[in-house]
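Q: For a teaching session next week I want to show students how multiple molecules come together into a single three-dimensional assembly. I've collected the sequence lines for a complex. Could you give me the predicted C-alpha cells for the whole thing so I can convert them for display?
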Amino acid sequence: MLNRREFMATSALAGAAVAAGCKAGSRTWYRFLSEHDVGSLTAICDQIIPADEFPSASQACVLTYIDLQLTRHYRRHQQAYLGGLEQANLLSRKEFGVELAAASPQQQFAIAQAVEKQNPRFFDLVRSHTMQGYYGSPRHGGNRDAVSWRMLGLDEPPVRGRAQYDFTAGRKP
Amino acid sequence: MKRVNAVVIGAGAGGGIVAKELSTAGLSVVMMERGKWYTPHDCRKDDLRNQRTTVLGNAFGPEDEGNPRVWVDPKGTVHTALPSEGSYQNNAACVGGGTLSYGAQAWRYMPQDFRMRSTYGAPAGSSLEDWPISYDDLEPFYDKAEYEIGISGDYSGTPFKGPRRRELPMPPLAPNREFGILESAAKRLGLHPFHIPMARNTVPYNGRGPCMRCRWCCGFACEVDAKNGSQNTVIPVALATGNCELRTECMVTEILTDDRGRARGISYIDGDGHRQEQLSDIVVVSSAAIESARLLLNSKSRLFPNGLGNRYDQVGRHLQGHHYTGATGYFDFDTYDDVGPGASIAICDYNHGTPGLCGGGMLANEFIRLPIHMVDKVPNGTPRWGLGHKQAMRAYHKRSVVIMGPTQQIPTATGRVTVDPAVKDKWGLPVARFEGNVHPHTYDIGEIQAKRAEAWLKEAGAVTTNLMSYRSEMVSAGQHQAGTCRMGDDPHGSVVTKNCQIHDVDNVFVIDGSVHVNNGGFNPALTIMAVAYYASDALIRNWKGTGFKS
Amino acid sequence: MRRFLFMGVIALCSLALLAVGGTYGANLYYATGHGTNCADCHEMADNVGVVHASRHRNAGCTDCHEASLATKLRHIRVHLTGSAPESIRLREADVQQMMGNCQKCHRQEYAGWHAGPHSATYSEIFANAAHNQKRRLMDDCFRCHGMYFDGAVRDVVQPQNTTGPWHLTRPKMADQATIPCQACHWIHREGSPETKPAERISVAGAAVHESVGFYDRREQMHFGAAMLTIPALYDGARVLKVSPDQRQALCYQCHAPRQPEAMSIAATNHWEPQAGSGDDRTPMGVHEGLSCLSCHNGHNESAQASCATCHPAMSHCGLQVEKMDTTFASKASQHNIHWVKCTDCHRHGVPQVKRSVMAAGQ
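A: Of course. Below is the structure for the complete assembly, covering every listed component.
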C-alpha cells in the first residue's frame, strides 16, 4: 500500500483527473437535467458530500450518475427532482435573494438543511442517489476513477496474483 | 410435446437436486425456469445492481417491469412492491435460483430445530410445530448434500450440533483478520467459535478451482465459479444424463388436473409468449416458498376451487424467513483486510437453551462490506450527510465489524401468501400478496441476539457499537423464505406429507423451502438441499413405472 | 411481368442510392462535430469530451475507429429503425480492428509489441497444452488474457477440462492478440502513448502519462496507472524496497504478488503481499527497488539491451552481461535478473577489490 503522503499525492492527481473528466468539452453533456438544474443540484450534492482532501460529490461526477439514472432506472423520480430543485431555488431566492447555484457555501448548507426539513422525500432521494453515485461502482457514471474507494483505502482494481487460487493450495482434499 | 415422467418447476436449490436425482434414476424430466441461465461473465459484479443491493435493480431477476407483488400493512393498506424493493421479499429468478448469488453459508439445522413445539411449546398466537421428520432422518441427506454440492468448513470448534457421520469434504478458508479478532474474544466469553460451513470450494473440488477471496460474493455470481450452487453442480449432472431438459424463460401458469383429481401436467408461457402444455406423470413444484404457494393457489379447477393442495386453507400460511438482528462494532484499529468472502466465524451457543426464549439463532460476522453498504452503517450520532458523514466513512470503513444472525422465526397462520384479486403480472397471472406480520416473540429473541452480538464485539475491542434490532410491519421472507406448504402428517394442518407429496394429489410434490415447518436459526439452503435429496429418494423408491403405488 | 421487373429495378436502385448516400452521409456525420453528434444520443460524452483535450485531438473518429461499409450500413439501419442502443462500447472486434490503425502512426511501438510476449495470441494462451494440463481454464483468465473478450472461457476453448486436446471454438480467433493496445492504453486520455526512446529509461517517479492505464474487464473501463496500487511487499519479514514509479503499477495488475500463505508468520504479522509469489516479478537482490520500466520498455518486453545502460558489456565478474541467462522462467540459471543477489555467487562476501571498483563505478 502507499503511505499516507503518497496516497494523498495520488488522490490529488485523481482529483485533478476527475475535474477534467466531468467538465470536459464546452457543452452540456447531461441528458435530463438542464444547466440550471445542474447548478442547483451541484449545490445540494456538494453539501451532502463536500470536498476536503478528497473530491466533492460533483467533482467525482455524481451528477453524471444522477442524470444518467434519471433517464433509466430512476425515471420515476424525474418529477420529484424537478419539483424539489425548483423549491430549493425558491427558498434560496427568498432567503438570500440569489439562485441556489450562486449562493455562498454557508447559504447552500442552510438551504440543504431547510430542504431536508421541508421536503424530506426529495432530500432523501438526493442523499441516497448522491451516496450511490459517490460510493458506488464507477461504471454507473459516478465515483470517477473509483476515487471514493481509494479514499476508503480499497484498491481498484485490486492487486491479486493468480496464485491466489492456485490449484495446489489448501490443506487436504 | 412429448409426455415425460416428471416436470420440475424451478431450477433452484430444491429443483436442481430433484431433477438430478430423478434423471439419474432413469426418469425423463423437464425442468422449467422462469429466469435465464447466467454465466459468471454476465454478472460483472455490480455493487448497485445485484441480489443484495438492488437500488438499480436485481441482477438475477425478476426485473422490475411486469412482476409486481402486493403487501398489506397492519392498518389494512395495500401496497404494491417492485422486485427491487425489500417488501417484495425477493429471492431470485434464474437457473440456480438463490444459489447462484447467495453468500453460500451451508448450515445443518440442529436436532432441536425439528422439534420446536415439543421443546418449547407453542407461544400464544403462533403455529409453532414439530417437523414430521427428525434430524436423524435427514442426516444421511445432509451428508449427501455436503459431498455432492461441495461444502467447506470445520464444525470441530462447536459442541452445538447434531451428530455427523463424517467431516465436511473441504477444509475452511484461511482465517481473515476479523476471524482472528473475533475468535479470541468469543473464547474469552466462554463461547465456541468455529469456521462457517460454506458451499464454496477452498480446494479444487468437483472439477472447479477454489475461491480467490475477492470482495464480491454475497449477492453476486462467482467470477471463478468456486461458489457451489445447483447451477454448477447438480443441474449439469442432470443435463448430462440425457434424461433431463431445461427450459429457461418459461413461466408456468398452472398445474393441470384431470377429472379424477390427479395432475396431468402443466401449462406454461414460453420465452416467445406462446402458451404451451407439458404433460407428465408427476409434477414437482420447486419455486421457493412464495412462488410455489402462488402456483398452487393459481391452479384452480372444478375439483380444487381454492387451488391445488389447498382443501384445508393451508397453502401460503406460516410464511417465514429470518429476523436478522445484530450489531456493528467500531474499533480503533484496522479490522478489514479486503479478503473475501468476509463471513468466516460463527457461534451456535445461542441457538437453543435460553430460558424464556423459543430458540434463538446462529451469530456470525458479516460478508465483506462494499462502500455502498457502509453509507448507513456509520456510528450512531454521525450526521446523515456532510463532511462529518464523509469523514466517518473514511474513519470506519476499515475499522468496523458487523455481527448478526438469522433469528429463528416463530411462525403464525396469519403471516401468509395469498394471490391478489386485482393485480396481475405480465403473464396475466394473479400476483403474490402478503398478509400478516411476524410473531412478536421473534422480535423479543432478536433483541436479545442483538445484545449478544454487541457483547461479543465489545469483548473484541469495539470502542462503540450500533445495535441493529427492529420490529417490522410486514412479513419476513426474502431470500430465506420458507414454510408456505408445510410438511406434516395431518392434512388439516399441513400441505404435504413427510415425503413432500401433496396430501390429496399423490402425483404433485412440493420440494423446496416451502415444506419447512420451522426455518431454524440458520441460513436454510443446505436444509432445502437435504430435504430435496430426502424427498427424491422417497419418490424414486415409490415410483412404479408411470405411477405410484398407493 | 415487365412492370414488376421495372419496379424491382427501381427499388434496388433506390436502395443502392440510399446506401451510397447514407454512407457518405455517415462519413459527413462522423466528421462534423468530432463525435459530439454521436454523444448527443449515445452514452459516450465522457469519451468524446476527453479525446478533445488529448494529443489525439486532431485525429478524426474514423482515423481510429472502424468505418467500413458494413459498419456504416449497420449504423444507418439501427438509426432508421430506432434500435440504436443508448450505451455503446467497443467490442473486441472493434479493438482488434483498431490496432491496425494504431500501427499506422506508431510503427515502432507496434513492431516492439509484436516481437514481445504481450502479443500472445488466443491460441498461444488458451490452447497451450502444457498450461491447460496443470490449470483449469476459467473466466478469470480473461482478467489479463483477453480482457476485451465478450463471453465466457467456454466460448473460447473446448473441452473445459485438464486432459484436452484443446481447440479454439472460433478458429478465426487463433491469431488474434489477447492483449491489444487498448489493454494498457487509454487512447482518449490526455497525453499519448510513449514515443521517444529517451523516455523509456525510467527514473523513479517519472511522469506517468495519462494514457497509460489498465483496462479492467469487470468495470469495462480503464484505470489510469497514476491511480493504481503499487503493493507493499515483503521478503519474509523484511520490507522490500519498491520503486515508487507509478507506471509499474500497471504491471502489477497482472504480474502480481499475493497475500501470504495462511497462518504463516507473514500472514500473522502484516497481512501484506509477499514478493516472489503469484505471477510476481518484483526485483529483489541487487536490482531491488528498480522500476519494471528501468529495464523493460513497455512494448517489446526484452530487457537484454537495457543492461548496457548501467553495466559495461563485461561485468565485474568477467561475465558477458548480454549473454547471461537472465530470465525469470529459467530456474536453473544463476542469473535470474529479478532475484540475483551478490551472495549467490560470492558466498563469502564480495571481494574487497571488486567492492572498491563497484563503489568507484557509482
